[in-house]
UniProtKB/TrEMBL annotation:
<dbReference type="InterPro" id="IPR035398">
    <property type="entry name" value="Bac_rhamnosid_C"/>
</dbReference>
<feature type="domain" description="Bacterial alpha-L-rhamnosidase N-terminal">
    <location>
        <begin position="141"/>
        <end position="301"/>
    </location>
</feature>
<dbReference type="InterPro" id="IPR008902">
    <property type="entry name" value="Rhamnosid_concanavalin"/>
</dbReference>
<dbReference type="GO" id="GO:0016787">
    <property type="term" value="F:hydrolase activity"/>
</dbReference>
<keyword id="KW-0378">Hydrolase</keyword>
<dbReference type="Pfam" id="PF17390">
    <property type="entry name" value="Bac_rhamnosid_C"/>
</dbReference>
<dbReference type="InterPro" id="IPR016007">
    <property type="entry name" value="Alpha_rhamnosid"/>
</dbReference>
<dbReference type="Pfam" id="PF25788">
    <property type="entry name" value="Ig_Rha78A_N"/>
</dbReference>
<dbReference type="InterPro" id="IPR013737">
    <property type="entry name" value="Bac_rhamnosid_N"/>
</dbReference>
<feature type="compositionally biased region" description="Low complexity">
    <location>
        <begin position="855"/>
        <end position="874"/>
    </location>
</feature>
<feature type="domain" description="Alpha-L-rhamnosidase concanavalin-like">
    <location>
        <begin position="312"/>
        <end position="407"/>
    </location>
</feature>
<feature type="domain" description="Alpha-L-rhamnosidase C-terminal">
    <location>
        <begin position="761"/>
        <end position="833"/>
    </location>
</feature>
<dbReference type="InterPro" id="IPR008928">
    <property type="entry name" value="6-hairpin_glycosidase_sf"/>
</dbReference>
<dbReference type="Pfam" id="PF05592">
    <property type="entry name" value="Bac_rhamnosid"/>
</dbReference>
<dbReference type="InterPro" id="IPR035396">
    <property type="entry name" value="Bac_rhamnosid6H"/>
</dbReference>
<dbReference type="InterPro" id="IPR013783">
    <property type="entry name" value="Ig-like_fold"/>
</dbReference>
<dbReference type="Pfam" id="PF08531">
    <property type="entry name" value="Bac_rhamnosid_N"/>
</dbReference>
Length: 874
């Protein structure tokens, strides 16, 4: 077998997902098993619902997000697709067939209406249950439930839960976009009477958001929308839809809130109470807002057992890992009416749950027992960030009866890293866990306190890491649609998306720049041309907004700025008081966004725009130099962050001044004892800036520093996620007194991008990783490192180790990818394609990467001592 087509999928969807487009793009990975293969065409076969097949042959060697080669599918259209690829006279075997199904594409496809309880759905009434009964004389051959809600919902059919989604339909910019879900419910139906029901909770729609007492941000009434479509063997169809005939009753969920938790009475089953039911009424709801999900749903993705237990009032359970989700508790032999409570916290202080960092969030689940022999307690419409849980109300708790259920968007892992330093590896895993916890339907800042918002600044700095660690192609594409929808008419970009802060004129450097940075990152990672085109008006509107603020001088000065947020020198009560001058930072970001916009315009063929915005970027750089850079290379405010921005974004025009700026950054880092002195905006760039300055050895010393503030300080303190502050926990074990003290904040985890690119040595240089640079910086401060990325074209891997003073490097490249390999010590790169390639080089501490000298040959080696390829666990 010379080649196989694997991992066929449509759009950015999961296998089997229902799509929101009639012309889904296709992607696949070509696993080439023998030399000489050169893809020159592919065939796509579509088998429709009736079994008829269509075949399209396309003369192209591309395999990532290729256009749909058939006529658009109709709403509800479905079938199966498979692909094969040709090379000269040869063809691969056909791929496995994957289902293709289109959802409801417009309001005309819906006949359901939003329904709400008349009196049972008040703020203090708990989660209502809405339901309808219907009879079936015969079973259908196909059944789809389309559903959404104002609030969050969990649907059931004949008492069995529908789907495995959690907190559906999720959080979007509800005024503009509301997701719907699609479920295959065929196996849940039965002849005779059937009942379709749904619990409806507050969620983001009506629960507390941002500050105490701020509820009902989007509306005061919960509502449910459902359209059950049945298809029978004779071709007839039937719909059961939400309308005024539905009923509502109370459920056992007496209270639910994302911040405060949930209270449930297990004596009240969550099934329709027909005797105590009331009518529903149809309420307004714009069906034109309804959209299908792009990325994966929120689900239970993992189960974590108890790592330790202690007694202090109640039973304190330690799961050994700070995570996001639920505590599942099995109670045996409980008495009816007894109450069990579970409180959550990320850390302990003096042996007790540290609740102060949660601010007003109560993070408490409570249950009134029914008295059944065995009861399983877990919430439905809330989530918590925690490592520790305190269980009260039980005389004894067995560790085997307590489990942490990990919640998050069910993203596919796509990158791995390991090194010779276990603390660095723990840091990397902390980044992974922080991303898992905070990528819960949208990229939140933190998952535990009374916030949990989609801060644009956090994802702006973390996007390159996110797009490498996990497949975020659909997840962030959907979030960017919300950003564009929430953007002000003058181009202003909110500080959080979805925008519940509702600032009248939002514009902040590094935060609002998510409009340009995140689309650019995603295009590089996934080669999604359509996404770039879709976001281009938003990108342009933001840069035009800043151009207006900067004026003819091209300097963005004054106005509100977050600045280099949470600079470690900032006092606990003033996180914006950073060493970096906010005007310098703002103008640097202006130049950066203008440059990104120019590049996007060129990619999309908008050449006039590309020329105009390139000129704007260049003018801004000149203004930056004139105002903020001395002839000797000093940059105003003279701190790590401003030099990091200036060096990484090429903002210092004169080469001599640029070299002096690099030397000054090194001086500042050495004077700080190799400790970090940057906040949210400087931290992702400071190690790269040291490498630009020709001192990767100093970058390594900074990475490996364990005294605070540093990345590894938190590791030495037992952290299992990334902290919001460099010293969220003080060396004596006390929690930082600041009001913003999260122990699960991914922003500083942007360092993982540097680990991938500069330690592991693997970085994309063309969209979709079609071309990559392999350039590990080997200074001798680590003995080995390895990174792998599941790119859109397949697994790419770089691994190296130092052996007897020599660097042994192995590079694995899949079909379709070209790698430019800079062997440590080489002056020029070696270009390689498909296969496993071995090289030998030299340790080069403290030299500029472009000035490394090769000791030995850069030609591929067959040295038996080179590290062998090995499997990575997903």
């Amino acid at each position: 077998m010379t080649a196989l087509v694997t991992r066929l999928r449509l759009e950015q969807s999961e296998p089997g997902a229902v799509l929101g487009t009639a012309t889904p793009r296709l992607s696949w990975v070509l696993d080439v098993r023998a030399p000489g293969w050169a893809s020159d065409r592919y065939e796509v076969e579509l088998q429709d619902a009736a079994g008829a097949t269509s075949l399209a042959t396309v003369p192209s060697g591309e395999s990532v997000l290729v256009d749909w080669p058939f006529a658009p599918l109709a709403p509800r259209g479905h079938g199966r697709v498979r692909v094969r690829v040709g090379s000269g006279e040869r063809w691969t075997p056909w791929s496995d067939a994957v289902p293709v199904e289109v959802g409801l594409l417009g309001p005309e496809d819906w006949s359901a209406a939003f329904v709400s309880p008349v009196s049972l759905g008040g703020l203090d009434d708990g989660a209502p249950l809405v339901f309808t009964d219907f009879d079936l004389d015969e079973l259908p051959v196909r059944a789809r439930l389309y559903a959404s809600a104002h609030g969050v919902y969990e649907a059931s059919l004949n008492g069995g839960r529908v789907g495995d989604d959690v907190l559906a339909p999720g959080w979007t910019a509800y005024e503009h976009r509301l997701r719907y879900q699609v479920y295959d419910v065929l196996t849940g139906l039965r002849r005779g009477p059937n009942t379709l029901s749904a619990l409806v909770g507050n969620g983001w729609y009506r629960g507390q958001l941002v500050w105490p007492g701020n509820r009902s941000s989007y509306g005061s009434r919960l509502a449910f929308l459902a359209q059950l479509e049945l298809e029978f063997a004779d071709g007839s169809r039937r719909r059961i839809v939400t309308d005024g005939s539905w009923r509502a009753s109370r459920s056992g969920i007496l209270f639910d809130d994302l911040y405060d938790g949930e209270r449930r009475d297990l004596r009240v089953p969550n099934v329709p109470d027909r005797g105590g039911s009331e009518p529903v009424e149809v309420v307004p709801g714009d069906l034109a807002r309804l959209v299908a999900r792009r990325g994966p749903a929120v689900r239970v993705t993992d189960r974590v057992p108890v790592a330790g237990m202690s007694a202090s009032g109640g039973t304190i359970v330690d799961f050994g890992q700070n995570l996001v989700g639920w505590v599942e508790l099995v109670v045996r032999g409980g008495r009816a009416g007894d109450e069990v409570t579970v409180r959550h916290a990320e850390v302990l202080e003096e042996g007790e749950l540290a609740m102060r960092p949660l601010r007003s969030a109560k993070a408490t689940a409570s249950y009134v027992l029914s008295g059944a022999d065995v009861e399983v307690l877990r919430p439905t419409f809330t989530f918590n960030g925690f490592r520790y849980a305190e269980i009260c109300g039980l005389s004894e708790v067995a560790a085997a009866d307590v489990t942490a259920l990990v919640l998050g968007s069910d993203l596919r892992r796509t990158a791995w890293f390991e090194s010779s330093d276990p603390d660095v590896d723990r840091l990397y895993e902390n980044v992974v866990w922080s991303m898992r916890g905070n990528f819960l339907d949208l990229p939140t800042d933190c998952p535990q306190r009374d916030e949990r918002l989609g801060w644009t600044g956090d994802i702006q700095v973390f996007a390159p890491t996110a797009a490498t660690l996990f497949d975020t192609s659909g997840f962030l594409a959907g979030w960017l649609e919300d950003l564009a929808a929430e953007q002000r008419p003058d181009g202003g970009v909110p500080y959080v998306v979805p925008d519940v802060l509702r600032e009248p004129d939002p514009a902040a450097a590094g935060w609002s720049d998510a409009a340009t940075v995140v689309p650019s990152v995603l295009h590089l990672a996934y080669a999604d041309h359509d996404l770039l085109a879709r976001q281009y008006p938003s990108m342009r509107a933001w840069v035009d907004k800043v151009a207006g603020l900067a004026g003819d001088g091209k300097l963005w000065r004054g106005g509100f700025q977050f600045g280099d947020w949470l600079d470690p020198a900032a006092p606990p009560d003033d996180p914006a008081k950073a060493a970096a001058d906010p005007d310098v930072v703002a103008t640097a970001y202006f130049a950066r966004s203008a440059g990104l916009l120019a590049a996007a315009a060129r990619t999309l063929g908008h050449d006039a725009d590309a020329d105009r915005y390139r000129a704007l970027a260049d003018e801004t750089v000149r203004a930056f130099n004139h105002e903020y850079v001395t002839p000797g290379g000093r940059v105003l405010s003279d701190c790590q962050t401003v030099y990091a921005l200036a060096l990484c974004w090429d903002l210092v025009a004169d080469p001599a001044a640029r070299g002096a700026a690099g030397d000054r950054l090194v001086e500042l880092v050495v004077a700080a004892g190799y400790r970090v002195a940057t906040g949210f905006l400087g931290t992702p760039l400071v190690l790269d800036a040291l490498c630009v300055a020709g001192r990767p050895d100093v970058a390594y010393r900074m990475l490996l520093q364990k005294a605070p503030p540093s990345w590894l300080y938190a590791v030495t303190m037992g952290a299992t996620t990334i902290w919001e502050r460099w010293d969220s926990m003080l060396p004596d074990g006390r929690v930082n007194p600041g009001d913003m003290t999260s122990f699960n904040h991914y922003a500083y985890g942007a360092v993982a991008d540097w680990l991938h690119r500069c330690v592991g040595g693997l970085a994309p240089t063309a969209p979709g990783w079609r071309r990559v640079e392999v350039r590990p910086l080997v200074t001798g401060q680590l003995a080995h490192a390895r990174t792998a990325v599941d790119s859109p074209y397949g697994r790419i891997e770089s691994s190296w180790r130092i052996d007897d003073g020599r660097v042994l490097l192995v590079v694995e490249v899949p079909y379709g990818v070209t790698a430019e390999v800079w062997v440590p010590g080489a002056e020029t790169p070696v270009v390689v394609g498909l296969g496993t390639h071995r090289f030998e080089g030299a340790v080069q501490p403290g030299s500029r990467p472009s000035e490394q000298r090769l000791s030995g040959s850069a030609a591929p080696s067959t040295d038996a001592g080179a590290p062998a390829a090995a499997e990575w666990s997903a």
